[in-house]
Every structure is written in C-alpha cells, then in structure tokens.
C-alpha cells in the first residue's frame, strides 16, 4: 500500500534539526522529499553520520548554490513541479535566497512555502537555538527542583516540537488547495505548549512554581518517588486511581481511604507525599511498576535511554546501515520502507 502522502513532493532547504525532522516525518508517510543542500552538503553532515541519518532518511538530495543564477533557475524548475517548500533559516537569509511565497509563486501559484524561524519572518535574526528558546519562554525557569538552578531537558524539545507543528501547517495548507506562506516559529510553539500553565497566569494570575521531584502543580501524588531501588514515576490523576493505590499499598486502615478526594490531596500535599514516600520505599521501582500497572494505575520505573530501547525493540527500524527510531505515526495497511539518508549529490 502506498503511503498516505504518496504523490506529494516537498522541497526542503533545512539545516540541523527542526526543518529536517519535519520533512522526515512527511517522507516516512510516503511524500517525496527532495533535500536541497549547498555545495558540499548541509552542515549537520559534519556532526556525524548517525545524527544526519536520524533526521534525513527516506529523502533524496540535490546540491544547489542558491546564490547563483543557475541555482535559482533550477530551484524555480523544482518549485514548478512541487507542492511545498520548507525552510528553516534566519528570516534575512530566507528572503535573500528568495524562499518565500512572494518570490516563488511566479513558478507555481499553488506552492506552499513554510518558513521555520526563531521569532517569525518579521521577528528579526536573533539566534534561536533550542536551548535559547527554552530559556526565553519560561520552560527552563519552571523546570528543576525549587532550590536548584533552572534546568533544561536532555533533548531538543523546542526543535522537535516546532518540526511537528511545521509539518502540520504544511499539510493543512496543501489540503486547502491554496498556495501561500506559512510561518512557524520556535518561540510561539513553545509558548503554545505551555497551554494550561499560561492560561493559569493569564486568567487567574497564578505564577508557575517548581515542586520537588518534578511534581505536578495540580495532581497529588504525581511525580518521581525514590524506592528501595530506583525511582518511580507515579501519576494519580483521579480518585479511582488513588483508591486502587491505597488498597495495594496498605495505606488505608480499617477500610478507610485517607485523603479520599483530589481536593483533599491537593490541600494536604506534604502529608500525602510523606505517606506515599514511606510506603514506596518498601519495594523496588520495578516491583511497584508491576504491581500498580496490574491495577491500571499510571506508573513507570525510571529507565535510561538504553534500557527504554531494550524494552521496546519494536520501535527500532533499519535504514541501510543505520538503526533508527521509526515513525511514531502508524497508518493501518501501510508500512514505511525506511531508506538510508542520501549521499551528497551534484545538481
């Protein structure tokens, strides 16, 4: 079965992570993605073969000097035969290279041009690397223990999230049947993902604050807990989960359920956490995971990335000589054929 995006041609002028990730997701779903690279290849090739492969499988490549007349002419020919072009660069570079709908619509009125930037096409050229955006949008400030420094996650959450948003915007405009300019910027995507945190401040004046062990601001208990061996993520969001946890852990006495409602647990956060910490210290993280999952309670032992990959071998795919994580989007009747990333090609 052909992929759901078979017949769609997408041009990518992408660098490093956000843009290439967006188009790789689309390529995995059957779109034809042509990666336009500068002479010598895109800069992320210098990071390492596995890095490049993790973001550029299932694509073809062509090297064009987009500052030359020949390169611009060839780009125009490709645009005339494509559905979309996606680029992630500084706004001034996007405009200078003519990678906007305004510049390219003369070749194809229905071309969809997606510009991925840090702060929008009119937002200037300030550097917008992933960690900088996390710092600027409040993500780092609300992450970590209360008495510790601001903390960044161990992966590029802003770049990856913006890549997914850009892929969505690209497809939405293609479906509309109209060409046009689409903008997606890292700042706006990260602020959008702070949805309920931002709404709490905008509507109720509630400033986000950190809780120990990554605890949730509303639900209790919902955080990491130290056990007899390892850490456990426990996420009790409603009274049914709490009732099951109390029954399994033996916290309740004489059939009584302490802190029975969500409101009681939130109002007595410290007391609840002390009780839960004590009981969880009696077994290992793996032991609690097995016991509580059998009851449908959301929980997981904290694993390293190697441990997580070993536990889920079905997510690993082979693309040429590379072992990679496959597409997270499963379409009934369609199985992606994973091809290795393209070698540097001449025009």
Automatic annotation (TrEMBL):
The keyword Transferase applies. Keywords: Transferase. InterPro entries: CoA-transferase_III_domain, CoA-Trfase_fam_III, CoA-Trfase_III_dom3_sf, CoA-Trfase_III_dom_1_sf. One of its GO terms (molecular function) is CoA-transferase activity. The keyword Acyltransferase does not apply. This is CoA-transferase. The lineage of its organism: Bacteria, Bacillati, Actinomycetota, Actinomycetes, Mycobacteriales.
């Amino acid at each position: 079965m052909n992929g759901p995006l078979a017949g769609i041609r997408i041009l990518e002028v992408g660098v490093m992570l956000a843009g290439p990730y967006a188009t790789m997701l689309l390529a995995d779903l059957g779109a034809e993605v042509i990666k336009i690279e500068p002479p010598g290849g895109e800069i992320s090739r210098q990071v390492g073969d596995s890095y490049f492969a993790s973001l550029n499988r299932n694509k073809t490549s062509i090297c064009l000097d987009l500052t030359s007349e020949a390169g611009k002419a060839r780009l125009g020919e490709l645009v005339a035969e494509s559905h979309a072009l996606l680029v992630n660069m500084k706004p001034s570079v996007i405009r200078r290279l003519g990678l906007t709908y305004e510049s390219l619509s003369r070749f194809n009125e229905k071309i969809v041009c997606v510009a991925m930037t840090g702060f929008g096409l009119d937002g200037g050229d300030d550097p917008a690397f992933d960690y900088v955006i996390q710092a600027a949008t409040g993500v780092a400030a609300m992450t970590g223990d209360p008495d510790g420094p601001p903390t960044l996650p161990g992966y590029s959450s802003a770049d990856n999230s913006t890549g997914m948003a850009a892929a969505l915007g690209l497809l939405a405009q293609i479906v509309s049947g109209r060409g046009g300019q689409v903008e997606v910027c890292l700042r706006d995507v990260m602020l959008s993902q702070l949805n309920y945190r931002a709404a709490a401040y905008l509507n109720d004046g509630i400033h986000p604050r950190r809780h120990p062990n990554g605890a949730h601001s509303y639900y209790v208990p919902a955080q990491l807990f130290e056990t007899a061996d390892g850490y456990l993520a426990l996420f009790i969001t409603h009274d049914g989960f709490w009732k099951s946890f109390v029954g399994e852990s033996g916290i309740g006495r004489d059939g009584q359920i302490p802190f029975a409602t969500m409101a009681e647990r939130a109002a007595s956060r410290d007391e609840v956490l002390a009780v839960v910490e004590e009981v969880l210290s009696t077994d290992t993280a793996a032991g609690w995971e097995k016991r509580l999952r059998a009851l449908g309670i959301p929980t997981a032992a904290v694993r390293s990335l190697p441990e997580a990959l070993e536990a889920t071998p079905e997510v690993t795919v082979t693309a040429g000589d590379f072992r990679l994580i496959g597409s997270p989007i499963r379409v009934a009747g369609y199985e992606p054929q994973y091809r290795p990333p393209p070698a540097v090609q001449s025009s």
